[in-house]
């Protein structure tokens, strides 16, 4: 089999030499068994839920509110969503989040898509369910530095929260640790990454992927050996591997008390990763290009290295670019809209609560209208009536503002207390522009 393949490659090579095309020969991917791989990467038709925590609309709505609730933290400033930001695939864009003590945390904030299918949680797999995982960051001194009892008391003193807990848990209508964990877990199980172009190819649409991307997929399942660990529609085997990063973090080894598992970390899903850079448990790799270069050239050889890594991966510059092109097809063109996030209002500036003088729409990636005249003291309302996540940034006289993620349904209200010219853009789609002219005449 092997020898036949080599002989064939030799023949192809020989004919290419004759045709004067030999430099391209090494970049030719092996033929792809499309039918086989379409089966391997097919998406499931439903999301699994544990029998003791069935998903209900009320529970998910409560979980989504709790995910955004700073009362869970000791200083009342940190919510789950402070680190797990929806427009960054529920990661935070930094290599390691700076903790309560001002020092970076030990590991990077992982993306949270598709954890309903997870078998263990955290980079080292030390939590066995989303329910048990959720209580850890709350009491962790460096993450939320909270106290569960205090947090539960604070939630229970809020009438709306008591009502939401009752609706979510009719059989046990109490604000307890168990129900808090169940609601957070139920919400996180709804974070299922949407279909991308790769899924359209899997469903049989041959033209959904460009030739370069398909060549990258051939490498991924072929000589680059990625599929040994990144397998199935989520692109993870749920196992722990040492992939030879220089980090000294021992990962899975100490959790098991098995030194052979030192430096091993959970294989992450590769879905929607365009939005969650930097990569790896330590955030040490900035781009997909860096990741591919790591596998090809920079693996630290040590006894714990995963047996599932190919002995040697030789990749030309073209092949590396093809792999990166393929990885990009596993992400949406815009940060995907997470279902079930409650709409919120982000207010900025004096009089931001005033009745809005004007409302601007963001439908189809456009501020509409694109120019607004206002008076000092008036408020502007910017409503995300689009299907995408946006980010409102304002630059003007001696002032600038950044809204963070503005999810579909969210409103940003801005009060202007100084005359002048303000430029409003979306940080995610910078071609979205709104010009605001504020005149001195006081509003009445
Ligand atoms: C200060 C930042 C921060 C906050 C706040 C935070 N997390 Fe995390 N989260 C992390 C980091 C860092 C990890 C990885 C830690 C590790 O693997 O050792 C993590 C891991 C996780 C994981 C495991 C994901 C996986 O792939 O295994 C889940 C689930 C999670 N967090 C949910 C939550 C929830 C729910 C909350 C709120 C109750 C929360 N986080 C609050 C930073 C944070
Ligand atoms: C031996 C198993 C294995 C193989 C083979 C493998 N990976 Fe990985 N991959 C992992 C593990 C484990 C991690 C996380 C490692 C860590 O953080 O220490 C990872 C991380 C990644 C990440 C970063 C994801 C994130 O969210 O941080 C990308 C991208 C990636 N791999 C792509 C690839 C590509 C492309 C290939 C083929 C060239 C490949 N992997 C081959 C196991 C593997």
Question: Please, could you describe this protein's structure?
Answer:
This protein folds into 4 domains: 1-28, no CATH class; 31-44 and 194-328, Cytochrome c-like domain (Cytochrome Bc1 Complex, Chain D, domain 2), CATH 1.10.760; 57-189, Orthogonal Bundle (Cytochrome Bc1 Complex, Chain D, domain 2), CATH 1.10.760.10; 345-439, Immunoglobulin-like (Sandwich). The chain contains 14 helices and 11 strands. The protein has helices at 2-19, 22-25, 34-40, 57-67, 80-83, 130-139, 148-156, 159-168, 177-189, 197-202, 211-221, 252-256, 288-297, 317-328; strands at residues 240-241, 265-266, 345-348, 356-361, 371-375, 379-383, 392-396, 399-402, 411-415, 420-426, 433-439. The radius of gyration is 25 Å and the shape is globular. Residues 72, 78, 80, 82-84, 97, 105, 107, 109-110, 112, 115, 121-123, 130, 133-134, 137-138, 143-144, 184, 188 line the site of one heme C.
